[in-house]
Amino acid sequence: MKLTNLPLSGTMVAWLRLCVALWLTGGIGCKRSDRHGADVDRAEGQATAAFEMPSTSVTVWSNRTELFVEHAALVAGQEATFAVHVTVLTGWEPLTKGAVRLTLTMADGRTTVAEAPSASRPGIFQPVLKPPSPGKCTLAVHISGEHNDDLNAGPCEVFSDAKAAREATPK
Which residue, 22, 70, 99, 162, has fewest beta-carbon neighbours within 10 Å? Predict the structure, then answer.
C-alpha cells in the first residue's frame, strides 16, 4: 500500500498540514533580538564550555551499597553538579528516600561539603560542590535516612581553571 492511498479524515489532514507548517516556520520565532542576543550567546558559551569539560566517574561498593559518582572536572571557584547514583544492595533497589552528603578534603585538611537532601530521580542525588582552591583531594560520600552508609570515592583533583582541567585529561 502506498502512503498516498491511506484513508485520512479531514481533521487528520488539517493537523498534518498544521504540523508541517509549524515545522517549516519554526525558526522564525527563535531569532535573537538585539535586546536578548548577548544573554543567549553567553548561555550558549557556558553550555558549550560545560559540554567540553572532561568528566570523571567512579564506582565503589560497601557491603550494603553500590555507589556510582560522575561529575565534570573540578575547577576552583566553580560549581560542579554531581550525579550520585545510589543502589541499596538488599534487593538491588535505587535509594528513593534519604540524603547524600559529599565531603571534599584537600591535601592540607580543609573540607568543602555539599548535600542533596533528596533524590532528584529514584536513586540519583545531585549535590552541587564549589571547591575553593586547586589541589589534590579525596572525596567521601555519606548516605543518611532510611539507608545509612559512608563510602570513600577515592582521590580527586581540583584544577585552577578549565584549561588546566582539559590539558590534564588523557585523550
Answer: 22
The secondary structure of residue 79, as a DSSP letter, is -
To the nearest 10°, the Cα dihedral for 77, 81, 83, 88? Answer: 80
pLDDT class of 169 with cuts at 50, 70, 90: confident
- Asked whether 102 and 140 are in contact (CB, 8 A), the reply is yes
Q: Are 70 and 81 in contact (CB under 8 A)?
A: no
Cell of 135: 589541589
pTM over 0.90: no
Contacts of 69 (CB under 8 A, 6+ apart): 57, 58, 59, 60, 82, 83, 84, 85, 139, 141, 153
CA distance 132 to 111: 9
Residue-wise pLDDT for 8-58, tens only, equals: 455 544 544 544 444 444 444 434 334 334 443 444 444 444 457 899 999
Q: Which residues are registered as beta bridge partners of 114?
A: 102
